[in-house]
Each structure stands twice: as structure tokens, then as C-alpha cells.
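Box 3.1. Reading complex inputs
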Amino acid sequence: MNPSTQPPNPLLQAHRLRKRYPKGKGWLEALKGVSLALYPGEILTLLGPNGAGKTTSVKILAGLVEPDEGRVEVQVDGPGTWLGAVLEGSRNLYWRLSALENLIYFGTLRGLSPKEARRRGSELLQAVGLQDKAHQAVGSLSRGQQQRTALAAALVHDPPVLFLDEPTLGVDLEAQEAIRAWLLRLKEAGKAILLTTHQLELAEALADRVTILLEGEVALEGRTREVLAGSPRAVYRVELGLPLEEGDSRRTRLQALEVEVEGKVVRVVGEETLWEALRILDPLPLERVERESLSLAGLFWRVLRERRKPCSGSST
Amino acid sequence: MLRVVHIEFWRFLRALSRYPLELLGSVLGAVVVFALFFSGARYLAGPALFGERLEALVVSLITWSLAFSLLSQIASNISEEALAGLLEQLALTRPGLLGVVLVRALLSLLQIGLLVIPIVLAILLTSGARLDFPPLALLPLGTLALGSLGLGLMLGGLALVYKRVGQLLGLLQFAFLGLFLVRFEAFAWPWSGLGYLLPLTPSVAALRLLLGRGETPGWDLLVLAGINALVYLALGVGFFRRALRRVRRQGTLGTY
Ligand SMILES: Nc1ncnc2c1ncn2[C@@H]1O[C@H](COP(=O)(O)OP(=O)(O)OP(=O)(O)O)[C@@H](O)[C@H]1O
Ligand SMILES: [Mg+2]
């Protein structure tokens, strides 16, 4: 963690959260000391494979699950209403009520007057492109439309903090695009947003900060731009003027350095390795040497692979 | 608070307007059951069986249907919300889960109050019983409602933890019927006192005297009814809170 570039006041901070669930005769450690911070005007994306502890973290932050250890500090007022949440795996809405009625109901329970709730509700349904469906029972909407209604319901009382646990599950591409643009606008309006998703492109487009959870531990966290650029073991791509032949002895020497060779392209991880690889390649003509801009997806896979290597065979 | 009552009432009416037959079905069902019960019993046994106890029996049955409807509505509403996956969203509101449950109980009470009128009429018509209704009866009716609310919260707590309580409700229905039929007010002192420790019994006894016999019960019985109701209400609230805490620790509030 480097506190230098962070805005001073997080809206929400979680310190060393631990949670374990009974499993058979032993325990399942769902979270092993997870710390997180949410800042206004920023989207924090929580990534991780199934069972990593994302939903558990979100629910602890929302106060729906009690941690065994650790604490959550919230710098916003409003008991129960400082946050809006789209929770994973639950309906979030009354199927018997219409979309608008759901928004009016939850808006009022979260502190609006019914009139305000109706006005906000209509606006939000328009924003998610469901104005035509406002009066249709939620149970009869499609999966993606329900998900969009749930998103509107989470926002109806205009909370400063949003928890979105896989909000784009089952949502078609066009609507995903709309949600993406909308989340960016909400962020600009100063909301602190925690997003979990398995869609890495969505994460890439939205995340100001990223936290990767693996088996209940934070495997990597930081500002997206910094973790992508300043990751200590950057990937370099060397393009040769001539391909390296199959039988070439330099090929085996490079492979010993864990360098990937593919025709004219050589991929090297880390700066020292790059110099060594270049010495091996020495008299060959070079077309270009560049640092690969790493995508969030690439980073995610690398973190996953590095973690899996020492303790292989751990299945989820 | 008023807003919450308002919006809950509105939600109830909305749901009702979409599914009116459900409510109608439950009212008609209860009316038919009671009507059959009394006309059948009268036909089989003749008026001699009930004799002067007929009024007492009718009051027992009415109070039982009032109390049991309230507590089972609270518990089954929580079960339903668990099934629908809404408990977590309801917990994330200003009144919180307990607040929402209490407001809904209040509305249930109103609804049951209205529903019970046709049921009472059906019972009176088919049984031939005569009931008084002095204003003082409102007092034990109130304590009956409070006590049932407490029991409803206990069952609601169980519903939070175990999600399904249908079977338990079915069993309790008969246990309660038994409890309500016993006339503790006719027992000698130590036994009646012990009987009044059971939930709702002093309220039911007072109502039997007031409605069935037109007698005014002693103040001690009314005070006892109040204390009994408040104790069970407090137990109910405490139990519900503990259950909520427990499911939050287990992480099972939202699961079904
Ligand atoms: N209430 C519970 N009781 C027992 N175990 C639980 C409970 N909730 C979660 N777990 C376990 O804790 C671990 C973390 O679960 P969690 O739902 O947080 O994962 P996740 O990262 O959200 O996964 P996914 O990507 O599938 O949504 C899992 O192994 C899960 O089985
Ligand atoms: Mg999850």
C-alpha cells in the first residue's frame, strides 16, 4: 500500500476481516484477513475465482454477515440506508409487484417519501431503459430486465455507497454497455462503488482500483493503472528480424530462463531476464523491444497462475 | 414510521389487487370450517353437549383463530420472504428487519380484525350462541394481540434460522386449540395461577368471562393478562433479535 496518491478519506474501510464457516468436522476459511477501502468517486473491483470470498466480503461490509474478526468503519450516516446493494443469487425484488412499485416500496423503506420514491423510480427506470416495463410485474420480466430493475432499486434512495455483486449477470451486451456507462456516471457523481464481476472486460473498463481475492486472501490490490503499469515483473515483447529456428541452441537457453519463444516474437518477464535474453540473442537483428501493456485479464491470469504454482492441485 | 405503515399498507393492497382470490379463499375457508364444525357438532350431539358452556367454547374458538392467525401470519411471512430471497434487502432498510416485521404484524392485526367479523357471524349463526361485547373487552383483546405478537416473533425467529416452519405451525395449531379450550378461570387458585403463566391464557379467560357470560373479570385477572402479554412480547423480541444475530453469524440470512 502506498498512501501517497490516495484521496485522504475513504467512505468505508474494512480491517483484517476474517470469517470461517463450519464445514464437515472442520472449518472453511472464507476470509483470512481481508482489508479493503472504498473512496468516493471511485470504483473498486473485486475479482477472484468462484469461492474466493467476494460475496462474503460484500455481505460483511453491508452488515448482513457478522465477521469473526476485524471491523468495518463507515464514514456515512444513515443506519441501513447509506448503501444500496444488488446482492448475488437473491431476487432483490418482489416478483408480484411491478418494477415501479418495487422502487416506490424500497425507496420509501429507505427514507424517501412515497412521492419522491415514485419520481426517482420513474427516472431510474428510464435510465436503465425499462420505462416501457415500469408497470409490468417483475416476475414476468426477463432475467436481464430483472437485474436492471434490481440495480435501479439499489439506487432509488441515492445512497453514497453501492455494492454490486455481479450486477451484469444474465444481462445482454447492449444493456451491459448501458450499465457500464451508467456506473461511470455514478462514479463521476461521487459515489463509492464496490463491484464484483467475472467479466474482466467490464472490470477493466470500470475499475479505478482492483483487489484480487484468492481463497480468502488479498492476492493483489491497488490502483488499476499502477498495478498494470508498475507491476514489478513487467512483460517485455521482443520482435526479432529473423525467426529463431527450431533446433537453435539459443532456444533451449532462453527456455531455461522461462522465456516464451514463438517464431519472431519473444516474451520475457522481468527486466533482468530481459537483459540476459538480449545477451543470448546478441548478434540477431531486432525489430523492436517493448513493454507489453498488460490487461486486467492478463494480470488476473498471471496472479492466478503464480498462486496456483506452489500449492498445485487446489480445486475450487 | 407512519410512512412505513403507509407503504406497507399500499404494498398489501397492491398485492391483493393482483391476487384477490388468495385472501377471499382464506376467509371463505375459515368461515366454512367453523360453520361445518358447529352445525356438524350440533347435529351429532344435540344442544345438550354444549349446554351452558356453548358460549365459552365459542369465545375460545374465536380467540384461538384471532391469536393463531396473527402469529402464523408473522412466521409464514418471514418464511415467504426467505423463499423469495428478500430478507437481506428488507434488512437493509431504515426500520430494519424487526421494524418491517412489526409494522406488518400491525397490518395483519387490522386485516385479521376485519376477517374475523364474518367468521364470528358464521359461528353465531350456526351455533346459536349469544355473545356480549362490552367495551372493556377491548382491553383483553389488546393483550391477546400483544401476546400473540410476541409468540409470532418467536416463531418468526425460528423461521429466520430454519426457513420453513409450516409443519411446526400445523402442530402448534392444535396445541394452541387445546390451551385455549382449558378454562383456567374455573380452576382453584394454585392451578389457575400456574395456568396463567402459559402464553395468552389470562387474556382468553378474561374474554370468556366478558363475552361469554357478560361478567366483569376481576382487575387482578386483567392486570395479569397485561403482564403475561408484555412478558411474552419481550421474550419474542429478544428471541427474534438473537435469531437475527445468529443467522448473521452463520451467513444464512439470505439463503434458503
Ligand atoms: N453461509 C455459508 N455457510 C457456509 N459456507 C459458506 C457460506 N457462505 C459462503 N460459504 C463458503 O465460503 C466460500 C466463499 O464464498 P463466497 O460466496 O464469498 O465466494 P465468491 O467469491 O462470491 O464466489 P462466486 O464467484 O461463486 O460468487 C465458499 O467456499 C462458500 O462455499
Ligand atoms: Mg459471489
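In summary: The radius of gyration of chain B is 19 Å.
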